[in-house]
Design goal:
The complex is a heterotrimer. By secondary structure, chain A is mostly helical. Chain A is built from 13 helices and no strands. Chain A has two domains: 61 residues; 227 residues, no CATH class. In chain A, α1 packs across α12. In chain C, α1 packs antiparallel against α6, α6 packs antiparallel against α7 and α18 packs parallel to α22. Chain C has one domain. The chains are: A mainly alpha, B mainly alpha, C mainly alpha.
Chain lengths: 351, 215, 566
């Protein structure tokens, strides 16, 4: 019985995640289209909303093609690993106050560990296909992921320094006064750049640079195996946007200063609007806040993709190691000093 | 999801069978790591072993150490390992030399090693294994007594774990692993921290020294 | 106190990374080491040092023994740094030697052509690696910590610090293939040894729940009294595992196979360091371990120190017998080291006052004479610059730049080229072999008498026999040096230049004031020759003033044995 419940829990988490992936793909195509002055998908469903499902159906119905010289087991295992580990990260995300699957005390660490494992899928898929393009793509992608993971985890360490806990909910709740966006704005920029690189998105999509490497590590993958990669990519984009908004934008906390508004309403209209208050308090920590913030970040992802040209691989790596990393390390030295100087070390909040 | 399910199960009553299962899988993976001819596949089995051990650590309650294990060994060390192996591209035929002659020697070494280790391991853990019966250090009486002890201990452990992981109030009292590790590392054992940081510094300097291009 | 000051120095050295000549760094290192010697000598006068003082919450400790070995390590590494701190050859001109000129003028060579630079070996590879000193200091830190560590985990950490440094030092000469491969061999086997040490430590912790050596000793001795079967059975095995790891690191007999390859592969200057420092620190640690855990010997039939005796026996035999067939000189030195380790382990395991005394004395004298032997090899390599080898075989040796002398036959007839160096080498080798009036003889004699007193007749016999056998290969080197014709010819173009004299300008405030000619043959630089002469004289003249040395080791041994508070 208990295991049945936990399976249902899992399904309740995964299915919406995959659905949101579908809609993010449509959103991307529509946004790109309107930025490039064209229509985008508009035939399937109302306003082209069902285009993603049509594509998925098409891919699933295609024939499996595996190269003859490939290592078949690893060839199929790679995409699966990628998908599984990009979905595992959703486990510790608190979507609203009290709305989570697991309130893990080491949530942040878990997130890091799982995201570091996702690299294996790409590495294996690229290697096992026995193709030069795929192999080059996977090597590029792995090098990129390892390098940028360093930046991401150092930034996360700094955020943890301010919260004093690895628990996601504690991190969110400690932003009740002010979002970390304000004190740590440069770090947010660095983290955002790092997350674009970590998800292999343009302008850092050297791993699947179409003009050089056909399509990188997934050159040889087709049909439903390709769907796995596709899903994994977008799932990890959503996940990393969620992570961004949890770390810097205050997660599910309300964007609008509710108390302030209510007090204004009270003073201006001088009426007891208890219904409004109830409404606001419902909104104030609802999952919609997280959804809004994440949606905004995803829009920025797409925006960046539409606006910037792709950079060269050596530029990518040198930006990571010689620009971003020294900056982050300088912050690692500076921030504890400031925190200690202001006597603002966080106390242990156990929720 | 699997870790979650295991965790879920764990909070509802820790089963020692899981630990046994993980032991068996670990041994199996270890053997596969050695036996496999293809270096990349064998590294993959090694990674499986690491994940397994990390799972064991998480299962018995060392959450932080388990996750750190995954993060460091699986997430960083093994990836680099695999990366290099893929780059240097060893031909499998080169590794196919005849090693059958060494098998008796290997068996002998392993037996000797296990004899010594069997003597040395804490008694209540090795009690019902082949090793300790070989080593013949305990009388029968003692053996049965310890056996009973062992089962009692197991029940007790189960109960303790049940109690400790199920109670909500524990999280209020019990400091997390990170807190306690940090507490120890930065107070009484701070010297080790300094020494290990020097080792890391040496490693960093050394890597630079070895790879830097001289004019 | 001492340790923290070393850390400060080390870190300041590490931070001040200027791309400068490596020679400067070596000299800075020498100054640092002098300062460290001064500090640890000062620390010898701390009250209560006899009983040992725990540092850093008991994770490390210091006593007069650790301080003494600290000084020894500092001195030896000082002398080793001396080899890279100064150019190996010098030119002497009598007109330049007056004090006034020496202080206020600069000499500039007229034509900075390649041959003079080659002559002075300014571009030798050991002068271009600036991190050499840094590595050395890291290793010294590791071995100091190892000597004074009193906790199992700190033992492991400091062993790792020391060994990582050594692996890096071996691979640092990247241009030579042999040194890289030797470094890799060393790294892999050293890693295996570390695994054994870690396993032993983990088992001790799993069984006893302590990592402090003090509490470990207490439990050990109590176990001896109570005669509890299940406590006493596993302690020797745990210690055995740790000892296997340690013996691996010092290349004692059953685990010796890596050392000849490694010593042979790496450059001679590095070999000097690798061969001596690691052994001093680990043997000192073993001294402590053996001394405090020996009492368990009474209650159980098996003691882990018996396996040390086995290792000693094997080291004696293997070191001598395999050494007979070697024709490469550094391999031969490696085997001779193994056989000497046998003596040291024997003295260590007996563990009586006299044997500990002999152990300390043996360790000191052996490190000094081994150092002398290696410095002599380097010096001989430098002194052969002006000669061309007729033997084609010798010119084909790989890696000639880093270790010029590789074969014993290269020393053939060396007496006729530079008789003083040859004599010094002969004296050192005689001391190795244990020829009576020299230092090595007394050390061996002390070990034998201690062994006989405790009734180890068989091992003593083996020791005597092997030392006789090993005399064969030492004497063989001496014979090739003195009684053969050498195959070297003088390189003519160099000598023509030398006879013409090397033109040089003497500058004062950047103005040329004089024009001199260096007419003399370039000779060994004074730093090398002074080091060699001092060491050789110590070995030779030991019998005239043995009291200081013997008293020192005697006092240290007594300090170890007499319980504190007396």
């Amino acid at each position: 019985m208990i295991s049945l419940i936990s399976i249902i829990e899992g399904l309740l988490l995964i299915v919406p995640a995959l659905l949101s992936v579908a809609f993010v793909t449509i959103a991307e195509r529509k946004t790109m289209a309107s930025m490039q002055r064209r229509l985008g998908p508009n035939a399937v469903g109302y306003y082209g909303l069902l285009q993603a499902f049509a594509d998925a159906l098409k891919l699933l119905l295609k024939e499996y093609v595996a190269p003859t010289q490939a290592n078949i087991i690893l060839f199929f295992l790679g995409p699966m690993i990628t998908l599984i580990f990009s979905l595992l990260g959703y486990l510790v995300v608190p979507f609203g106050s009290g709305l989570f699957v697991s309130d893990y005390s080491l949530g942040m660490l878990y997130m890091l560990a799982v995201s570091s494992l996702a690299t294996y899928g790409i590495l294996l898929a690229g290697w096992s296909a026995n193709s030069k393009y795929a192999f080059l793509g996977s090597l590029r992608s792995t090098a990129q992921l390892i390098s940028y993971e360093l930046i991401l985890s150092s930034v996360i360490v700094l955020v943890i320094l301010l919260t004093g806990n690895l628990n996601m909910i504690t991190i969110i709740e400690s932003q009740r006064i002010v979002d970390f966006l304000l004190p740590l704005f440069p770090l947010f920029i660095i983290f955002f750049i790092g997350s674009i690189a970590e998800t292999n998105r343009a302008p850092f999509d050297l791993a699947e640079a179409e003009s050089e490497l056909v399509s990188g590590f997934m050159t040889e993958h087709s049909a439903s195996i390709f769907v796995f990669f596709f899903l994994a990519e977008y799932a990890s984009i959503i996940l990393i946007c969620v992570l961004n908004s949890i770390l810097f934008l205050g997660g599910y906390l309300c964007i609008i200063p509710v108390d302030f508004l209510i007090s204004i309403l009270n003073t201006v209209f001088s009426i007891d609007n208890s219904i409004l208050e109830e409404l606001f308090s419902n909104v104030s920590s609802s999952p919609l806040n997280l959804a809004l913030k994440t949606g905004l970040l995803i829009f920025i992802f797409i925006w960046v993709r539409a606006s910037f040209p792709r950079i060269r691989f050596d530029q990518l790596m040198s930006v990571c190691w010689t620009v971003l990393l020294p900056l982050v390390i300088a912050y690692v030295v500076l921030l504890p000093c400031i925190v200690y100087g202001l006597d603002a070390l966080p106390t242990q909040i156990l929720l | 999801m699997t870790i979650h399910l295991l965790n879920d199960y764990c909070t509802n009553g820790f089963k020692i069978e899981f630990v046994d299962m993980i032991y068996l899988v670990s041994i199996f993976l270890g053997i596969l790591t050695i036996v496999n001819r293809n270096p990349i596949v064998s590294v993959l089995f090694l990674i499986g072993l690491f994940v397994n051990v990390a799972g064991l650590l998480i299962l018995v309650g060392y959450n932080f150490i388990g996750l750190a294990y995954i993060l460091v060994y699986v997430g960083a060390v093994s990836i680099l390992f695999l990366f290099i192996l893929m780059l240097i591209n060893i031909r499998i035929s080169e590794l196919l030399n005849e090693t059958n002659n060494d098998i008796p020697l290997a068996v002998l070494t392993v037996l000797l090693f296990f004899y010594i280790i069997g003597q040395v391991l804490p008694t209540n853990l090795t009690d019902n294994t082949i090793v300790s019966t070989l080593s013949n250090t305990f009388s029968d009486e003692r053996n049965t007594e310890l056996h009973n002890d062992f089962f009692n201990l197991r029940d007790l452990k189960q109960q303790i774990d049940y109690a400790s992981s199920h109670g909500w109030d524990n999280s209020l009292i019990e400091p997390t692993h990170i807190a306690s590790i940090g507490n120890i590392m930065y107070t009484s054992y701070s010297m080790w921290l300094i020494v290990s940081s020097i080792i890391l510094l040496l490693g960093m300097v050394g890597a630079i020294v070895i790879t830097i291009k001289q004019k | 106190m001492l340790l923290s000051s070393i850390f400060c120095l080390l870190l300041s050295n590490a931070i001040s990374f200027r791309r400068d000549t490596a020679i400067l760094y070596s000299r800075v290192g020498i100054i640092i080491l002098f300062y460290c010697i001064y500090l640890s000598y000062n620390n010898l006068f701390i009250t209560y040092l006899d009983s040992g003082i725990g540092l850093f919450g008991g994770l490390f400790y210091t006593s007069s023994i650790t301080q003494f070995f600290h000084i020894l390590i500092f001195t030896i590494s000082l002398l080793i740094l001396n080899m890279t701190g100064f150019y190996p050859r010098k030119l002497i001109s009598s007109s330049y030697l007056s004090l006034h000129r020496l202080l206020f003028t600069k000499v500039k060579f007229d034509n900075e052509n390649k041959s003079i630079n080659d002559l002075l070996l300014k571009k030798g590879e050991q002068y271009t690696i600036i991190e050499y000193t840094l590595m050395l200091l890291f290793i010294i830190t590791g071995s100091l910590l190892l000597i004074s560590s009193s906790d199992l985990v700190s033992i492991f950490l400091s062993i790792e610090l020391q060994s990582y440094g050594l692996y890096l030092l071996c691979t640092m000469y990247r241009n030579s293939e042999s040194s890289t491969s030797a470094g890799l061999t060393y790294f892999l086997l050293g890693g295996l040894a570390s695994c054994f040490i870690l396993l032993g430590i983990a088992l001790i912790y799993a069984n006893l729940g302590v990592t402090y050596l003090d509490s470990f000793y207490v439990i050990n001795n109590l176990a001896g009294i109570f005669n509890e079967q299940d406590i006493t059975t596993y302690i020797p095995y745990c210690l055995l595992l740790i000892a296997i790891g340690l013996l691996f690191k010092i290349s004692a007999a059953p685990f010796h196979f890596w050392s000849p390859d490694v010593y042979d592969g790496i450059p001679t200057i590095v070999t000097t360091f690798v061969a001596i420092i690691a052994k001093i620190s680990i043997l000192t640690l073993l001294l402590q371990l053996v001394h405090y855990t020996n009492s368990i010997y009474i209650t159980t039939q098996y003691s882990w120190t018996t396996s040390l005796l086995v290792s000693s026996l094997l080291s004696l035999v293997i070191g001598t017998v395999l050494g007979l067939t070697q024709f490469r000189i550094k391999r031969l030195f490696a085997y001779s080291t193994i056989s000497h380790l046998g003596f040291m382990l024997l003295a260590l395991t007996i563990n009586s006052v006299e044997s500990i005394q002999s152990f300390i004395f043996y360790l000191v004298q052996y490190s000094l004479s081994n150092l002398n032997a290696f410095i002599l090899l380097v010096a001989i390599g430098y002194s052969l610059f002006g000669y061309e080898d007729k033997n084609v075989h010798h010119n084909k040796l790989i890696d000639r730049n880093n270790s010029p002398i590789q074969l014993i036959s290269q020393l053939k007839g060396y007496f006729h080229i530079n008789s003083l160096l040859a004599l010094s080498l002969a004296i050192t080798l005689f001391s190795f072999a244990g020829i009576p009036p020299l230092m090595g003889f007394f050390a061996k004699q002390m070990v034998f008498s201690a062994a006989l007193q405790e009734g180890f007749v068989f091992l003593t016999l083996i020791g005597v026999l092997t030392s006789v056998i090993s005399a064969v290969y030492y004497l063989f080197i001496v014979k090739t040096m003195f009684f053969s014709e050498h195959s070297y010819t003088k390189i003519t173009y160099l000598y023509k230049k030398l006879f013409l004299g090397i033109p040089a300008l003497v500058l004062q405030n950047n103005k040329v004031i004089d024009n001199i000619q260096f007419n003399n043959k370039p000779s060994l630089s004074s730093s090398l020759s002074i080091t060699i002469s001092i060491l050789t004289l110590v070995i030779l003249l030991f019998m005239f003033m043995p009291n200081e040395w013997l008293h020192m080791s005697n006092i240290l041994a007594i300090v170890l044995f007499v319980p504190s508070g007396m």
